[in-house]
Amino acid sequence: MRVLLVGSGGREHALAAALAASPDLTQLFIAPGNPGTALCGTNVAIASGDVSALIAFARQEAIDLVVPGPEAPLVAGLADACAEAGIACAGPTQAAAALEGSKTFTKEICDAAGIPTARWERFDDPAHAMAMVRRRGAPIVVKADGLAAGKGVVVAQTVTEAETAISDLMTSDKLGDAGRSVVIEECLVGEEVSLFAFCSGETAVLIGAAQDHKRIGDGDTGPNTGGMGAISPPARFDRAAQDHALDLMVRPMLKEMVRRGTPFHGVIFAGLMLTTDGPKLIEYNVRFGDPEAQALLMRLNTDLLPALTALAKGSLPEVTISFSDEASAAVVMAARGYPGSYIKGGTIEGLEEAEAIPGVRVFQAGTARNAKGDLVASGGRVLTVCATAPTLRDALVRAYRGVEAIRWDDAVWRTDIGARALAEEGR
């Protein structure tokens, strides 16, 4: 099969590596890709959001399957354009991608399908939003209604912090159209986990689960990021719990989407909070997470390409997904200053030494080659160092050994990925 993978991050490098291992693959293109994906296939200089150029390339190269990595092309209608061109796409339509493109849409689906989630209200007027916050008090969660690349959520511990978030989103134009309206909801308390499934119509096939670490600093301090690390599987969320969550959070949503005439076909990523009252939905995403995909795909035993092909063709009941019993850990190395203004251009060395450690794999994201051909940092989240091992503790030891093997002066990373899970295991 000839496959076009869309995206340029660490998630796409992990997907590219998994696809490249398939005996069914004849050629893999990645648009636009990064220096890491270039080791798995052929990078193509087309931006992931340029839908018309992606379709033109897919036609020119007789692509059999388009695999979307990030959410933005899906919200922009990539799957619809593929369907019009007669090209299979392993992702949802623009209407179905509203599950990620609009927090309000997701909440309405939850209410209609009886899916447990936080109490919420939507606001277009910042004054009304602030009045609600003053009335409800804190802690409280303020979310940009639209796409914000993982940076549109503020878990405000004080009323003042919530007011600042509302002002930043709605009046300071920090996120543009994404923050024109906000969803304000109760703050759920518990452990946050990520559940993944292949979905087609009313059929859902469990992929697995991971736990992301969103905040920039150790001890879950500082601002939210796109993700600073992940473990798989999470503590206190075994296969039985994952199956239960699929029945509670995903299958009712799929039925409601079919009822509305916007069936969902793609990867669903359900962000859940494990509360004392049971799991509750935080959000849906319509693609693999990043860095959760890196941690998950390190454990994949089965061929990913047939599963994505079946998803695109609506033949999911035939799919078998199998993961190893080993644990995996992913540690993100970011550029100093991230998630604000960050340092670019620093030379990165030592990836080969890191990958010489048993069980370690380094996935590239914000990297580039300079005029001399050196690997340099070009983004905020730059590398994801992943490792597998029989236990989570050993996987973390290996991952951090990999981090220490990499030479890059401007790197920052969290030193406590998986610490809470290890504490749970020790109880």
TrEMBL record:
Its cofactor is Mg(2+); Mn(2+). Its EC number is 6.3.4.13. Gene3D superfamilies: 3.40.50.20, ATP-grasp fold, A domain (3.30.1490.20), ATP-grasp fold, B domain (3.30.470.20), Phosphoribosylglycinamide synthetase, C-terminal domain (3.90.600.10). It catalyses: 5-phospho-beta-D-ribosylamine + glycine + ATP = N(1)-(5-phospho-beta-D-ribosyl)glycinamide + ADP + phosphate + H(+). The keyword ATP-binding applies. GO terms for biological process: 'de novo' IMP biosynthetic process; purine nucleobase biosynthetic process. Keywords: ATP-binding, Ligase, Nucleotide-binding, Purine biosynthesis. The keyword ATP-binding applies. Pfam families: GARS_A, GARS_C, GARS_N. GO terms for molecular function: ATP binding; metal ion binding; phosphoribosylamine-glycine ligase activity. Pathway: Purine metabolism; IMP biosynthesis via de novo pathway; N(1)-(5-phospho-D-ribosyl)glycinamide from 5-phospho-alpha-D-ribose 1-diphosphate: step 2/2. Residues 107-313 form the ATP-grasp domain. Belongs to the GARS family. This is Phosphoribosylamine--glycine ligase. It comes from Acetobacter oeni.
